[in-house]
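Structure (tokenized):
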């Protein structure tokens, strides 16, 4: 489970921003939040809105870049076919519109939970060099905090339960210590617990190889395929079943089964409508998140599906009778049909807007205050006020032409 993510000096993000999946103490949709075993409360869903070029995608890409930085060295020595696309290098790009951005490191900080503990991982990178790195742990049962390691340019210090482990004196300055621990001490219970979260508990759609990811997601279990079929039937796509056929070393073909009266026939996915194709690239990840409780991150989810289906998917995550494994969905969107108080809590709606220095700013609806210092009411018309520019992240042109002043 993702708890909180902070990034500074990354692409359009100049100043530190924090994306928080911890639920605020507000009195709306209290039955649609994730209550962990220690009483802490988290959000099952969050949507990020804002104008094109405002930096919405960069917030998600920052999280993806951190994940890639950790997993790439591990995937480079892995013989699994599904790891191939993860070996490509993702550059860490600092804020480009100031001297300080180029001169300073990019900073990442993430809090996440496994079944065993909550972890805080920090990574600072400058021109691919690791300038600072640390890992801390909080046991959920005892609330006991402990530092696991700390790394600076001049020193590596293993602490607590890692105290007896050794680190090579030739540790590469571009290799994260966490990745090194995963390569050298992959059987260590805590190392495995941390890296399993990065590898198995958070998924990014629209960044990797969609065909390989589709095969991987569906192949995981019959439970995932069964839920995909349930969703397809609920969406009334007239598809009774589907199967995947391997084609060569890296290729697959998806066949869908249709029944008309007493007659059944199969066609390839390439023969289906573009909307159906998009759903087949999406639904396995939705099902996987709900079945296994993973965090799913999707850029421009609304570009893939109809608004009615978007609301249907949101409600799958906010219905705790369905989302029993505590899956999370984080996405960017332009669709306003769901931006209302029946679908979202105020802390689940986020905005990204550009400042005068071309820097992206991130804030949630629950923390937004107008010029009079007033918060947004929970019964407000969020979509209408957003279109009126009252939340700062104006979705349209800075100045709208008054056509009554234009001579025909």
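Design, position by position:
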């Amino acid at each position: 489970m993702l708890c909180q993510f902070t990034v500074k000096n990354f692409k359009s993000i100049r100043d530190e921003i924090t994306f928080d999946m911890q639920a605020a103490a507000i009195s709306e949709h209290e039955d649609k939040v994730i209550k962990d075993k220690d009483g802490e409360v988290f959000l099952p869903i969050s949507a990020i809105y804002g104008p094109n070029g405002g930096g919405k995608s960069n917030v998600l890409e920052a999280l993806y870049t951190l994940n890639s930085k950790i997993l790439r060295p591990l995937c480079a020595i892995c013989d699994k076919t599904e790891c191939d696309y993860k070996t490509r290098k993702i550059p860490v790009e600092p804020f480009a519109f100031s001297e300080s951005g180029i001169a300073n490191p990019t900073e990442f900080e993430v809090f996440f939970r496994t079944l065993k503990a909550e972890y805080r991982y920090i990574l600072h990178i400058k021109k691919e060099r690791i300038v600072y790195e640390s890992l801390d742990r909080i046991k959920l049962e005892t609330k006991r905090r402990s530092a696991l390691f700390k790394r600076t340019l001049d020193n590596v210090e293993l602490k607590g339960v890692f105290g007896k482990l050794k680190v090579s004196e030739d540790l590469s300055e571009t290799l994260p210590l966490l990745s090194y621990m995963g390569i050298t001490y992959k059987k260590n219970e805590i190392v495995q617990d941390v890296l399993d979260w990065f590898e198995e508990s958070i998924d990014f759609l629209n960044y990797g190889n969609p065909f390989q990811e589709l095969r991987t997601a569906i192949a995981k279990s019959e439970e995932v395929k069964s839920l995909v079929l349930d969703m397809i039937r609920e969406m009334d796509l007239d598809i009774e079943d589907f199967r995947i056929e391997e084609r060569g070393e890296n290729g697959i073909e998806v066949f869908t089964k249709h029944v008309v009266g007493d007659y059944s026939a199969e066609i390839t996915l390439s023969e289906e409508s573009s909307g159906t194709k998009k759903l087949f690239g999406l639904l396995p990840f939705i099902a996987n998140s709900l079945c296994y409780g993973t965090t799913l991150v999707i850029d421009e989810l609304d570009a893939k599906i109809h608004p009615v289906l978007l609301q249907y998917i949101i409600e799958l995550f906010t219905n705790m009778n369905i989302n029993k494994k505590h899956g999370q969905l984080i996405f960017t969107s332009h669709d306003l049909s769901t931006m209302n108080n029946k679908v979202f809590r105020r802390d689940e709606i986020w905005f990204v807007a550009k400042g005068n220095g071309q820097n992206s700013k991130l804030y949630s609806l629950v923390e937004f205050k107008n010029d009079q210092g007033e918060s947004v009411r929970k019964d407000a018309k969020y979509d209408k006020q957003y279109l009126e520019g009252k939340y700062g992240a104006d979705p349209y042109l800075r100045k709208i032409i008054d056509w009554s002043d234009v001579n025909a």
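Reviewer-requested clarification: Residues 397-408 have pLDDT under 50 and may be disordered. The first strand starts at residue 2 and ends at 8.
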